[in-house]
């Protein structure tokens, strides 16, 4: 089945009891049993919920995996993966990472004796050099946030197999429409479904997809044992969002391409980070592992003072100044003070998150109007 058909049909069946074509919101905490232990597969809604099950099956299909496991947020999904490991274990991650992921790694799991190395993954040798006998997992984000670097997923997976390590890919920025890391050898795909999967900026949600039953069983155990489960209404909203994922992402990518070209030609702009440019160092890898180049663009200004960035950030009319990404509406953000404020200054500047860096999540509005908005703000 091709992606667009999967987005509408995979894992989805009309409700058995009513024929409702849309998955009902099973807003219940428990289920009646005919006799002790005799039930329809549902006992208590932390453990199982029919709305959540449909979403889990659909996500597994979209990511070409076997099992989907949903959580109350992207970070709750990250938390569940961390709980597969223990004190003394070492994890290698990219140095250009979602701020909240960096925070849970260092401030929450660091406290329990887990160790993390943050390396520039655009050079595979940096990962190989960071591997030690305690290393268990490689955690990839690609495209990275906010510098839009590209990590070669297949190459990292090959290295990981050689050293018997697991690989998790945070696929939030690409969405399964653009990139399916399990096909490239990853063990886990993680999503903040809050972003492209939901797509309408109205829900917080997270998910993991895996192929291996053994990994899925451990994650279902943690989902139930730790209890960071999503509500059925939130699962419904993600199911509804996914039905237009391919159309939304396609349009957003087209808009981003035009906006990146406009920014690159603007005299006030210093650099534009966009993997769709042939000059981007990760362009060929992006071409190989992604269907399109995504709808995230970041750029810095020639005037590198924070005041210059602030002026642009507060002058746009269509681009709303807000955290988050992946919705139908375009957003503008300031990584240094917003999404990446929890990353220490020295660490941040090493990776290029300078004070004048501005990040765009390009939505599905008319590209000409978006460009006009940026033109005025920069002018
Ligand atoms: C937003 C985001 C997360 C965290 O997800 P939440 O749903 O906000 O908990 C993780 N990774 C990336 C790349 C994100 O953009």
Distinct helical segment count:
14
User: At the third CATH level, what is the topology name of the largest domain?
Assistant: Aspartate Aminotransferase, domain 2
Number of strand segments: 12
Strand order of the largest sheet: 1-7-6-5-4-2-3
Outline the low-pLDDT stretches. none
Helix % is 25-40%
Q: For the CA atoms, what is the radius of gyration?
A: 21 Å
Average of per-residue pLDDT values = 96
CATH superfamily of the largest domain: Type I PLP-dependent aspartate aminotransferase-like (Major domain)
Catalogue the ligands: pyridoxal-5'-phosphate
In terms of DSSP E residues, the strand content is 15-25%
For the record, the count of structural domains works out to: 2
Largest sheet: 7 strands, mixed
In CATH terms, what is the architecture of the largest domain? Answer: 3-Layer(aba) Sandwich
The CATH class label of the largest domain is Alpha Beta
Structural class: alpha/beta
Shape: globular
N- to C-terminal separation? 48 Å
Q: What string gives the helices and strands in order?
A: HHEHEHEHEHEHEEHHHEHEHEEHEH
Which labels suit this protein?
single chain; 379 residues; alpha/beta; Aspartate Aminotransferase, domain 2; Aspartate Aminotransferase, domain 1; seven-stranded mixed beta sheet; five-stranded mixed beta sheet; 37% helix
Question: What is the element layout, followed by pairings?
Answer:
Layout: H1 3-9, H2 50-62, E1 67-71, H3 74-82, E2 90-94, H4 99-109, E3 115-119, H5 124-130, E4 135-141, H6 153-162, E5 166-170, H7 175-178, E6 188-192, E7 206-210, H8 213-226, H9 232-242, H10 245-264, E8 269-273, H11 283-289, E9 296-301, H12 306-313, E10 320-321, E11 331-333, H13 345-350, E12 358-361, H14 367-378
Parallel strand pairs: 2-3, 2-4, 4-5, 5-6, 10-11
Antiparallel strand pairs: 1-7, 6-7, 8-9, 9-12, 11-12
Pyridoxal-5'-phosphate (PLP) is lined by residues 73-75, 98, 100-101, 141, 145, 170, 172-173, 192, 194-195, 204, 206.
